[in-house]
């Protein structure tokens, strides 16, 4: 498991905070604002549905 600190947005423009990557299960773990539980997605699905925010100007 690797700790991560990156932000992505989904197709609706909602920003998520990626906090972990689990290479053994190929899962991305992330947080959504206002939702108390961690979310996860298979890497391939995450790559299709999310775009990384490169800097604060993209919010």
Structure write-up:
The chain is mainly β and about 60 residues long. Helices cover about 10% and strands about 50% of the residues. The chain is built from one helix and five strands, in the order ββββαβ. It has one helix at about 45-50, and strands spanning about 1-10, 15-20, 25-30, 40, 50. It has a five-stranded antiparallel beta sheet, covered by helices on one side. Strand 3 (about 25-30) and strand 4 (about 40) form a beta hairpin. The longest helix has 7 residues, at about 45-50. The protein is globular, with a radius of gyration of 11 Å. About 10% of the residues are buried. The model has no long low-confidence stretch (mean pLDDT about 90). InterPro entries: DUF4222. This is DUF4222 domain-containing protein.
Overall geometric form: globular
Task: Report the structural category.
Answer: mainly beta
Mean pLDDT: 92
Classify the helix fraction into a percent range: 10-25%
Beta-strand fraction estimate: over 45%
Task: List low-pLDDT spans.
Answer: none
Overall structural domain count: 1
How far do the termini sit from each other?
A: 28 Å
Rg over CA atoms: 11 Å
- How many beta-strand segments? 5
Main sheet record: 5 strands, antiparallel
Strand order of the largest sheet: 4-3-2-1-5
- What's the helix count? 1
Order of helices and strands: EEEEHE
Pfam family, one: DUF4222
Protein name: DUF4222 domain-containing protein
InterPro entries: DUF4222
